[in-house]
Amino acid sequence: MTKPRNYQTEAIIIKKTKLGEADRILTLYTPHLGKIQAVAKGVRRPRSKMSGHLELLTHSLVSLARGRNLDTITGSQTINSFLPLKSDLELSSYALYAIELVNQFAADDVEDYPVFQLLLETMKNLSQGGDKELLLRYFELHLLNEVGYRPQLEQCVSCHSPLKEVTNAFSPGAGGMLCPACRQSQPFSHPLSPEALKALRSLQNDDYSAASKLKIDQKLAQHLEMVMRNYLRYLLEREVKSVAWLDSLKAQGR
Amino acid sequence: MNSDSIPTADAISKLIQELNKLPGIGLKSAQRLAYHLLRASDEQTKLLAEAILSVKQKTKLCSVCLNITDADPCSICRSPQRDPSKVCIVEQPQDILALEHTKSYSGRYHVLHGAISPTEGIGTEDIRIKELMERLKDGSVTEVILASNPTLEGEQTAMYLNKLISAIGIKVTRLARGLPFGTELEYADDVTLTRAMEGRQEF
Ligand SMILES: [Zn+2]
Ligand SMILES: [Zn+2]
User: Fold this and answer.
1) CATH number for domain B68-197, candidates 3.90.1150.10, 3.40.1360.10, 3.40.50.300, 3.40.50.720
2) CB contact, 8 Å: B139 with chain A?
3) CB distance A83–B192 less than 8 Å?
4) Which of these ranges, A132-141, B11-20, B109-118, B174-183, has the smallest mean pLDDT?
């Protein structure tokens, strides 16, 4: 479908790159056009009417004009500025991690409304003070559900037998769980306790209001983080950049 | 075959290519500049080439504030007129030019050479924070003014530095974030308006 010459869309700003002296190329995540890139002219000048509406982590209504190469942003109006997120170093960092993941996993110009909703919901829940680690795990698993990398947590990916209430293993390469027997032949997997598996399943399948009621102690939280981080690194074939920053913030908080 | 013609064409396209990489210079402008230089006198092009070379060769970073300078320490750090108890933190050397232009600040500076940007992989080690903290150690600085940009990266940098510097007992202030002069209220975004309202002052 070709876009009209001028169109309007809701968008969350997920990346910005400087262009020339005063412009930026912005990556927008939209409800019905998926991930799109557009040029915002003059937004780095102080008198720009648009710059505040086009900052990272902002939910805006954006007007665009179709261009030969990239579309140009002709106007923008904030829907939600997420000020509580932006005024808090930790919260803004967690939210930046979420938009980086969306940017990494989303293909250009592919509509995926649930991802838009998920990102918006995650930014809202973060700014309302939910458990930040739990929120990220929920976000990661639901994002993977959408983009086709849903890890198999119900049965052994190798022999397809249902998992028993014992320590099984998670294999990033196999994309899910392995039973103790199949685990022997898979070197790159890590043990996963029944509690950890239960938590992952809930985070994968429940909606946030149910998943957020999970009681997770710090040790389990760190374990789940490690499992997800390894899986994401395997899928992306590199580290998520903002992970290093989140780690250094956490190290200081301790 | 004229052996000169091909290298000449190569030379001009090379020049166009290089000019085109400069900020604000599109292909058309690059071509115009290249042909202008081709027609200019030898003397004129020599002066330009030397100026470009000496920019890289003769300038360095001030060992105190990390501003770009040709003498170390820079003229601001050397000046007895500048108050050494105040240090204004900026992202880029160009920001000092802008602030100096106002003639409204009489303290000194520190240039970070960037801002924290987690999604680009730019952390505290990648900008000049270590040098700043070293400089604040001797207790002669009593106020640090955070003048990083009012962007998400600039705000994150400011929040991070605020935590770090407040912890060693130095007063930290932030440039007021309000409405830019010449803008109209109706176009202002929520973050700017909220902060402008919070930072309002008696008339
Ligand atoms: Zn098995
Ligand atoms: Zn200096």
Assistant:
1) 3.40.1360.10
2) no
3) no
4) B174-183
